[in-house]
């Protein structure tokens, strides 16, 4: 095991990348991938759902969809009216996004199973390797 300090956002990216490697054939590599998936799931659980939109914001999103890509005066006016009507909802969503960005920028230490170059299977490609740089 190895303790690595990185930003929450980097850990989330790794957490999203690792499941794409579960079919790569190599026992040692597979064990390390599986262990890290479990480790990151546990260590990042506090981030689950932090970006879920409120029911009010989802309602606004549905109303806005009608006007997507439209530039006529009537559509623009309707969008402006929605912006005004949902001003507090939009501000709350922006505040939520700002808070999530702060969370993702925080550095944390996590003890992970290193995946080093000597563990890479012959069939691994560059895209897969790039996603693992944090674990080297």
Short description:
The protein is mostly helical. Helix content is 55%, strand content 9%.
Average pLDDT confidence is 95
Derived from helix and strand composition plus strand pairing, the structural class reads mainly alpha
User: Which geometry do the CA atoms define?
Assistant: elongated
Radius of gyration: 21 Å
How many angstroms separate the termini? 11 Å
Strand order of the largest sheet: 1-2
Topology as H/E string?
EHHHHHEH
What's the total helix number? 6
Number of strands: 2
The portion of residues assigned to helices is 55-70%
Indicate the low-confidence ranges by residue numbers.
none
The major beta sheet can be summarized as: 2 strands, antiparallel
* Proportion of beta-strand residues: 5-15%
Can you put this structure into words, describing what you see?
By secondary structure, the protein is mainly alpha-helical. The chain is 55% helix and 9% strand. The protein has six helices and two strands; from the N terminus they run βαααααβα. The protein has helices spanning 8-17, 27-43, 55-65, 73-85, 87-105, 126-130; strands spanning 2-7, 107-112. The chain has a two-stranded antiparallel sheet. The longest helix is centred in the last third of the chain and has 19 residues, at 87-105. The model has no long low-confidence stretch (mean pLDDT 95).
């Amino acid at each position: 095991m190895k303790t690595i300090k990185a930003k929450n956002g980097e850990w989330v990216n790794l957490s999203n990348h690792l499941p794409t490697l579960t079919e790569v054939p190599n026992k040692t590599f597979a064990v390390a991938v599986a262990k890290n998936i479990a480790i990151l799931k546990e260590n990042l659980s506090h981030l689950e759902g932090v970006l879920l939109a409120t029911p009010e914001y989802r309602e606004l999103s549905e109303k806005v969809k009608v006007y997507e890509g439209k530039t006529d005066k009537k559509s623009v006016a309707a969008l402006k009216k929605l912006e005004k009507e949902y001003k507090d909802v939009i501000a709350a969503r922006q505040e939520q996004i700002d808070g999530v960005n702060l969370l993702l920028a925080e550095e944390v230490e996590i003890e992970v199973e290193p995946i080093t170059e000597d563990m890479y299977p012959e069939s691994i490609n560059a895209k897969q390797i790039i996603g693992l740089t944090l674990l080297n």
